[in-house]
TrEMBL record, chain A:
Residues of the active site: K76 (charge relay system), S151 (charge relay system), S175 (acyl-ester intermediate)
UniProt-recorded name of the protein: Glutamyl-tRNA(Gln) amidotransferase subunit A
Amidase domain span: 22-468
Organism name: Azospira oryzae
Assembly notes: Heterotrimer of A, B and C subunits.
Keyword list, A-Z: ATP-binding, Ligase, Nucleotide-binding, Protein biosynthesis
TrEMBL record, chain B:
GO molecular function, one term: glutaminyl-tRNA synthase (glutamine-hydrolyzing) activity
Native species: Azospira oryzae (strain ATCC BAA-33 / DSM 13638 / PS) (Dechlorosoma suillum)
Keywords: ATP-binding, Ligase, Nucleotide-binding, Protein biosynthesis, Transferase
GO BP: glutaminyl-tRNAGln biosynthesis via transamidation; regulation of translational fidelity; translation
PANTHER family assigned to the protein according to its UniProt record, in alphabetical order: GLUTAMYL-TRNA(GLN) AMIDOTRANSFERASE SUBUNIT C, MITOCHONDRIAL
Reactions catalysed, as given in the entry: L-aspartyl-tRNA(Asn) + L-glutamine + ATP + H2O = L-asparaginyl-tRNA(Asn) + L-glutamate + ADP + phosphate + 2 H(+); L-glutamyl-tRNA(Gln) + L-glutamine + ATP + H2O = L-glutaminyl-tRNA(Gln) + L-glutamate + ADP + phosphate + H(+)
UniProt-listed SUPFAM superfamilies: Glu-tRNAGln amidotransferase C subunit
Protein purpose: Allows the formation of correctly charged Asn-tRNA(Asn) or Gln-tRNA(Gln) through the transamidation of misacylated Asp-tRNA(Asn) or Glu-tRNA(Gln) in organisms which lack either or both of asparaginyl-tRNA or glutaminyl-tRNA synthetases. The reaction takes place in the presence of glutamine and ATP through an activated phospho-Asp-tRNA(Asn) or phospho-Glu-tRNA(Gln).
EC assignment: 6.3.5.-
Quaternary structure and partners: Heterotrimer of A, B and C subunits.
HAMAP family to which the protein is assigned, alphabetical: GatC
Gene label: gatC
A Pfam family reported for this protein in Swiss-Prot or TrEMBL: GatC
Top-level EC class: ligase
Listed name of the protein: Aspartyl/glutamyl-tRNA(Asn/Gln) amidotransferase subunit C
Length: 489, 95
């Protein structure tokens, strides 16, 4: 049951082989047993989860079930869920019980999915290792001395350790794809604007996008079907026709199912800076794709190296604005002692935010301040356009782009925690996708010294269905994505 | 480019984050490291390139000016540090 796909779980529920209450209890028991070591969840509410499961069982019995009815899911603790602690990994929100539901949560509730709990994350989604969480780091289930990646590290570890069949994540600079790569999952960041940001605590609003984290492309497609859609409450939500993101997955098997597909290999993804063992797994995946009928085309993203510097201006600028709402007045942490309103703000924010969040607020404050705006913020926005135009040019020559997700496998806890710049560079292959607003995914493509390696696929705008199919065809002929870490019984 | 301790104190004040003298020094080192990464941008000629604020070039939607939400003040104020009679309480700002 723990290794079943979402489709298989739905069949088991429909066929009464197991009830949603039983399935939910199975996961709650595992969370009780294994979460103290992994620290993937920051809160659970078994009674609420089981009540949702009971309601799902009633829907199943009444013949009113959809593909996710009765299926337990883990929710990243960045999504507001009414009656649930919603901490965003921060002391600032450690006591915040949300009075409302994010649109993503509403949609999963309407689909009849069960909320298993809220998953740990880097504080306000700022980090690539889950070490900036106020609630302590998450351990990578493949090697508990290593990081799971971030910022959606709790969701990644929960699914990898079989503490949830699937989970949600959010991705501002790689926060779905990089932890998916480090934990052997399949994760998809949709095109900017496809999934509502309403009720998802804002980090960098022009980059933030929610998406699924699961064990296969097929599972991701089912989750995205539930998550996506226009939301009038999100000012940047896109009004587009409803899509079935799994529509290409059921095409009949063929010897060369990807014949005619052009895969772009950007030379900037294949230069120095990537571990040799990671690159060997990527090269093997390229051979596999050739065997599936795809044609490889060399492309270039000449401005990609500028994506990290531009991102570390734009994202902190937006964050400094978004996080100004945490002032100790309407919700969240308030310092116990202060001697004026200004002092209350300054002390509440000094005590409520962790070091990385403060650094980013300070960078953002600086680059937006008088006299520096043009040199930093506007320059970063101009470079952002150059990066986006690189992709437009590349997609004239190919259908999807392929490369590594992360330059290394999971690193040791503590290895980069004291060096922000080294940590930032671990997102070198993922950040450009957010700046351009494109969809991107990571899928398992092998192991290096027992640690998972992630393959990144980048699609053109709104090409999620094709991306999922390109991943699915690979997963039909490989078994990397089906492997589970040992020792978590 | 290199920040000075005074600049760190100033931006910490603008951001309303109390920062001790010891923190100013470590913050300065970290920020200077990050800005040395950011400085790579300055060598790029971007003359004539239109700044890109957003991934989708969209016009902001308008909506009808109608009541769409119910009154949930009590629920929203239940999570506030201090309220009284439907108001948020803060330290006195006017003598």
């Amino acid at each position: 049951m723990l290794n079943s796909s979402l489709k298989e779980l739905a069949q088991a529920l429909a066929g009464k082989k197991i009830s949603s209450v039983e399935l939910t209890q199975l996961y709650l028991d595992r969370i009780n047993r294994l979460n103290p070591a992994i620290n993937a969840y920051v809160s659970t509410q078994p009674e609420r989860s089981l009540a949702q499961a009971k309601a799902a069982d009633a829907r199943l019995a009444a013949g009113d079930a959809g593909p996710l009815t009765g299926i337990p899911l883990a929710q990243k603790d960045i999504f507001c869920a009414e009656g649930w602690l919603t901490t965003c990994g921060s002391k600032m929100l450690a006591n915040f019980v949300s009075p409302y539901d994010a649109t993503v949560i509403q949609k999963f509730d309407a689909a009849g999915a069960v909320n298993l709990g809220k998953t740990n994350m880097d504080e306000f989604a700022m980090g690539s290792s889950n070490e900036t969480s106020f609630f302590g780091p998450v351990k990578n289930p493949w090697d508990q001395s290593r990081v799971p990646g971030g910022s959606s590290g709790g969701s990644a570890a929960a699914v990898a350790a079989r503490l949830a069949p699937a989970a949600t994540g959010t991705d501002t600079g790689g926060s779905i794809r990089q932890p998916a790569a480090l934990c052997n999952l399949t994760g998809l960041k949709p095109t900017y604007g496809v999934v509502s940001r309403w009720g998802m605590i804002a980090f960098a609003s022009s980059l933030d996008q929610a998406g699924p984290m699961a064990r296969s492309a097929e599972d991701c497609g089912l989750l995205l079907n539930a998550m996506a859609g226009f939301d009038p409450k999100d000012s940047t939500s896109l009004e587009r026709p409803v899509e079935d993101y799994t529509r290409e997955l059921n095409a009949p098997a063929a010897a060369k199912p990807l014949a005619g597909l052009k895969i772009g290999l950007p030379k900037e993804f294949f230069g120095e800076g990537c571990d040799a063992a990671v690159m060997a797994a990527i090269q093997a995946a390229i051979e596999q794709y050739k065997a599936l009928g795809a044609e490889m085309v060399e492309v270039s993203l000449p401005n990609m190296k500028l994506s990290v510097p531009a991102y570390y201006v734009i994202a902190p600028a937006e964050a400094s604005s978004n996080l100004s709402r945490f002032d100790g007045v309407r919700y969240g942490y308030r310092a116990p002692e202060y001697d004026s309103l200004d002092d209350m703000y300054a002390k509440s924010r000094a005590q409520g935010f962790g070091a990385e969040v403060k650094r980013r607020i300070l960078i953002g404050t600086y680059v937006l301040s008088h006299g520096y705006y043009d040199a930093y913020y506007l320059q970063a926005q101009r470079i952002r356009r150059l990066i986006a135009e690189d992709f437009v040019a590349a997609f004239k020559q190919c259908d999807v782009i392929l490369g590594p997700t992360s330059p290394s496998t999971a690193f040791k806890l503590g290895d980069k925690a004291g060096d922000p710049v080294q940590m930032y560079l671990s997102d070198i292959y993922t950040i450009a996708v957010n700046l351009a607003g494109l969809p991107g995914m990571s899928l398992p493509c092998g192991f290096a010294e027992g640690l998972p390696v992630g393959l990144q696929l980048i699609g053109n705008y709104f090409d999620e269905a094709r991306l999922l199919n390109v991943a699915h065809r690979y997963q039909q002929v490989t078994d990397w994505h089906g492997r589970a870490p040992a020792g978590l019984e | 480019m290199s920040l000075t301790p005074d600049q760190v104190r100033r931006i910490a004040h603008l951001a309303r984050i109390e920062t001790s003298e010891a923190e100013v020094q470590t913050t300065l080192e970290h920020l200077n490291g990050i800005f040395s990464l950011i400085e790579e941008m300055q060598a790029v000629n971007t003359q004539g390139v239109e700044p890109m604020a957003h991934a989708q070039d969209l016009a902001q939607r308008l909506r009808d000016d109608v009541v769409s939400e119910s009154d949930r003040r009590a629920a929203f104020q239940a999570v506030a540090p201090e309220t009284e009679a439907g108001l948020y309480l803060v330290p006195k700002v006017i003598e």
